[in-house]
Automatic annotation (TrEMBL):
<dbReference type="GO" id="GO:0032298">
    <property type="term" value="P:positive regulation of DNA-templated DNA replication initiation"/>
</dbReference>
<protein>
    <submittedName>
        <fullName>DNA polymerase III subunit chi</fullName>
    </submittedName>
</protein>
<dbReference type="InterPro" id="IPR007459">
    <property type="entry name" value="DNA_pol3_chi"/>
</dbReference>
<dbReference type="InterPro" id="IPR036768">
    <property type="entry name" value="PolIII_chi_sf"/>
</dbReference>
<dbReference type="GO" id="GO:0006260">
    <property type="term" value="P:DNA replication"/>
</dbReference>
<dbReference type="Pfam" id="PF04364">
    <property type="entry name" value="DNA_pol3_chi"/>
</dbReference>
<dbReference type="GO" id="GO:0003887">
    <property type="term" value="F:DNA-directed DNA polymerase activity"/>
</dbReference>
<dbReference type="GO" id="GO:0003677">
    <property type="term" value="F:DNA binding"/>
</dbReference>
Length: 135
């Protein structure tokens, strides 16, 4: 069963996409397979562009629907359980046993917080106690 981590922005107005890039850079030092699960094509393109530009000192190899890249952005779920999955969708991932670690980043706005609460409740119903990191 996967670990679930929620990153909650309580004071910061940082956007989910920006924090995802920073967190991804840290995780890649320990784990070479990160999957950004994102069904929205516009958000996929925004994530792709941001990974190119957010830090000029450290490029993160990535691609849309390129599972051989260290970071894959896709509307589909990863093909194996060796991936750390960043969930950019508005629903929790019920097939938690299929992933090593699921990361949920919750922005500091009421809509995002409500979606985050629903995701958190579903993971608990599935028998998982998510870890929460307040930022």
């Amino acid at each position: 069963m996967a670990k679930i981590s929620f990153y909650l922005f309580e004071n910061s107005q940082e956007r989910q996409v920006e924090s995802a890039c920073r967190l991804c850079r840290k995780i890649l030092n320990q784990h070479p397979h990160i999957w950004w699960y994102c069904a929205d094509p516009d958000l996929q393109n925004e994530l792709d562009e941001l990974l190119w530009s957010f830090d000029p000192q450290s490029f993160i190899a990535h691609g849309i629907d390129q599972p051989h890249s260290p970071v894959c952005i896709s509307k589909d779920l990863p093909p194996s359980n060796d991936w750390i999955v960043f969930n950019f969708n508005n629903h929790a991932l019920e097939q938690t046993q299929d992933f090593r670690h699921i990361i949920e980043i919750i922005e500091n706005n009421e809509t995002a917080k409500q979606i985050g609460r629903e995701k958190f409740k579903l993971y608990r119903r599935l028998g998982i106690e998510p870890r929460t990191f307040k930022l």
